[in-house]
Amino acid sequence: MRAAIDEAKAGLAEGGIPIGSVLVRGGAVVGRGRNRRVQDGDPVTHAEIDCLRNAGRVGSYHDCVLYSTLMPCYLCSGAVVQFKIPKVVVGESATFPGGPAFMRDHGVEVVDLDLDECKQMMRDFIEARPELWGEDIGEL
After folding, report:
1. Is pLDDT above 80 for 92?
2. Which stretches of the chain are DSSP H helices?
3. Considering 48, 92, 127, 135, which one is annotated as catalytic?
4. Cys-Cys link to 17, which of 35, 101, 116, 119 (CB 3.0-4.6 A)?
């Protein structure tokens, strides 16, 4: 999770939304990413999508774990289900509920660590940039 938090902080430092993600296989990070919607001007470059793109073609994901600082939205939950990633570990879901039921309904193990650090990072961002957050979650 530390690597995902580092990605979130890097995204925030770039002027973006502080959400980070890493893909792990056998204890090694094989992909990392952060929400780059602002930086890239691309509405679908969420952290998990960026992470999967950066991992490249890894073949089967059956032995991978996806870590994300925030519960994946339905777009990213769909990618998890599509690629049959068996486990997702998230930093928190208090600031955004995402799609855990959708993932669980498709056999994904979802673990919510409910980390204060992740919650505070998102709360601070949402308070400072509510318009950017609203754009990210489609509530403008």
Report:
1. yes
2. 2-13, 37-40, 47-55, 74-82, 100-105, 116-128, 130-136
3. 48
4. 35
